[in-house]
Amino acid sequence: MSFPTRAYAAQSSTSPLAQWELDRRALNADDVLIDILFCGVCHSDLHQARDEWGGSIFPMVPGHEIVGKVISVGSEVSKWKVGDTVGVGVFVDSCRTCPQCLAGEEQYCDAGMTGTYNSPARDGSGPTYGGYSTQIVIQQDYIVSIPEGLPLDAAAPLLCAGITTYSPLRYFGVKPGDSVAVVGLGGLGHMGVKFAKAFGAHVTVLSHSPSKREAAMALGADDFLATGDEAVFAENRKKFDLILDTVSADHDLNSYLGLLKLNGTMVLVGLPNPSPVSAFSLIGGRRSLAGSMIGGIRETQEMLNFCAEKGIASDIEVISMDYINTAYERMLKSDIRYRFVIDLASLKA
Ligand code: NAP
Ligand code: ZN
Predict the structure, then answer these.
(1) Whose CA is nearest to atom 13 of ligand 1?
(2) Measured from the CB, is residue 331 less than 6 Å from ligand 1?
(3) Residue 104: which region, alpha, beta or left (left: phi > 0; alpha: psi -120 to 50)?
(4) Rounded distance between C-alpha atoms, residue 14 and residue 54, angstroms
(5) Whole-angstrom Cα distance, residue 311 to residue 282?
(6) pTM metric for this prediction
(7) Which of 61, 114, 175, 279 reaches 20 to 30 Å from 20, CA-CA?
């Protein structure tokens, strides 16, 4: 029998989030029931709750940076037991048979991954609902383990912001001595700085918030460029091997492409509406413009283990569930250092 679960939902693209009750599916034999402790607030939650990408399904319960405890398991669950501390990221299912799924890159599933929320469930039971809720039911293969030593609240953003920046830095082979720029110092950007530094790169933050200079240096950045000053684009031409662009709002990609060295790559992870790219921005330096989406289950576990080993977690501000609408407004103003994390105890009380 499905069971009622307390949550926070957007009823439409223009309504603020408010308390709502959803139905979680009864556990299948291979399902795990997770009591949610913390859930990070990703800018993708805001994009989707306000239908900025189109196709949003309402009511919507956002949240895909989930950390919790296993409180029940189905009869055929072999990977998890009651009491385990676990995480759930951006997807909860995929086809399991295409080359990407078999290679552990489920986020690039040929049939399309099933998002943790705002996605039709593969069994036809309706839309998925995310981590702004007290409990969630997840098939056992789409869960990761939170290693001991990581603070549970500051680990939650690793499930999206962490893996989304770790994966492209790994894929494009960032190594000691490389010159890496991180554009946008938000939830993703600050994790990008931490990982690029951990991989030995020389890291420059490019930010439209000049007030973030000291904070960027405190995070370990080697350099800071305020992009409000047009001159920085001329003064820093051909400087970077790799640019990781995490910006959530429209901006001119062409000026950033000019900052790449010969054969350099700019990786887009931020998801505003696309701005036009001129071929001239690419050809003069045999440059590449790439994109990258989160990471697979295997790599997410690898990233979490790396974080535990190196003592890396997110810089967070813990909030109660009823603060979420204010948190969204502050996120839009870049007024958060660097990730809001909801303490779900506030929804259980
Ligand atoms: P965030 O915390 O709001 O950070 C975005 C940053 O972009 C801000 O901190 C700000 O940095 C910069 N920015 C904001 N408005 C700007 C403007 N008008 N002009 C220039 N820069 C601006 O958001 P997030 O959670 O890190 O997410 C960032 C983007 O990545 C979102 O679009 C999100 O949907 C996307 N995302 C993609 C994936 C993926 O798999 N590819 C996964 C998760 C999220 P400064 O103040 O330093 O300029
Ligand atoms: Zn996210």
Answers:
(1) 247
(2) yes
(3) left
(4) 13
(5) 38
(6) 0.98
(7) 114
Residue 50 CA to ligand 2 center (angstroms) comes to 15
Give me ligand 1 centre to Cα 280, in Å: 26
What's the number of domains the chain is made of?
A: 2
- Please check whether residues 41 and 124 belong to one and the same domain: yes
The answer to whether residue 209 is domain-embedded is yes
Residue 298 within any structural domain of the chain: no
In a domain, 9, yes or no: yes
268 & 144 share domain: no
Residues less than 5 Å from ion ligand 2, measured at CB? 42, 44, 160
Tens of pLDDT, residue by residue over 160-193, are 999 999 999 999 999 999 999 999 999 999 999 9
Closest Cα to atom 44, ligand 1: which residue?
44
CA of 316 to the centre of ligand 2 (A): 15
Other residues' Cβ atoms within 10 Å of the Cβ of residue 339? 30
Same domain, yes or no: 108 and 217: no
**Which tens digits make up the pLDDT trace of 270-294?**
998 777 899 999 998 999 999 999 9
35: containing domain? 3-158+315-348
Q: Are residues 201 and 80 in the same domain?
A: no
Q: Is the CB of 277 under 6 A from ligand 1?
A: no
Pair 283, 319 in one domain? no
Residues 6+ apart with CB under 8 A from 134: 5, 6, 7, 35, 36, 344, 347, 348
Residue 308, in any domain of the structure: no
- Say if ligand 1 is within 6 A of residue 208 CB: yes
